[in-house]
Design goal:
This protein is mainly α. Among the domains are: about 40 residues, no CATH class; about 80 residues, no CATH class. The chain has seven helices and two strands, in the order H-E-E-H-H-H-H-H-H. Helix 5 packs antiparallel against helix 6. The longest helix is centred in the middle third of the chain and has 28 residues. The two termini are about 40 Å apart. This is Cytochrome P450. One of its GO terms (molecular function) is oxidoreductase activity, acting on paired donors, with incorporation or reduction of molecular oxygen.
Length: about 180
């Protein structure tokens, strides 16, 4: 997002910008960010998800406030300690090596020694591999079909949220 980068370069590590009608605070200082993330009573979320379907689907720490947020954060915090993350590095390394080798094979098998790679799909698979191995101790290859179905369901849900959230719908007849 080059406009965010330009804003930070021009106005500094703590600045704000407008995204449509909404102001966005940009904080690049790690200590200030730590303060904001840990003092939930002082710094509250100033946004609400207005789409009814998205409100129903999204739960967890992203949608929580106050004590509920603090409790969830304390529960999840041990999973993100440095020692736990260090244990995941071999899985990250293995998956990254596999993708790099796949790209090398694609380049070496091409006629002119170059090729076009649709990187996003490879990064998607990399993420799924690492998550399935580190969090669930399963192999992506075995559960590939499940991930494909989840991707399709996500796409359908995304399309549905765009269709149903009509301007003025909250003030008219409720959804059934």
């Amino acid at each position: 997002m080059p406009f965010v980068h330009k804003t930070i370069e021009k106005y500094g590590k703590t600045s704000f910008m407008w995204v449509g009608p909404r102001p966005r605070l940009l904080i690049m200082d790690p200590e200030l960010m730590k303060t904001v993330m840990s003092k939930y009573n002082t710094f509250r979320k100033n946004f609400k998800v207005t789409n009814n379907i998205v409100q129903t689907l999204i739960s967890g720490i992203l949608n929580q406030e106050g004590e509920e947020w603090s409790k969830s954060r304390k529960t999840q915090n041990p999973s993100f300690q440095l020692e736990k993350i260090k244990q995941m590095i071999p899985a990250f390394q293995l998956s990254c090596d596999e993708i790099v080798n796949e790209w090398k094979n694609m380049v070496s098998s091409s006629k002119d020694g170059s090729c076009v790679v649709e990187v996003m799909s490879h990064i998607e698979v990399l993420t799924i591999k690492v998550v399935s191995q580190t969090l669930f101790a399963t192999d992506y290859a075995q559960d590939k079909r499940i991930y494909q179905i989840l991707k399709e369901l996500t796409s359908i849900a995304r399309q549905t949220t765009r269709i149903v959230d009509l301007p003025g719908a909250k003030s008219s007849v409720p959804y059934c």
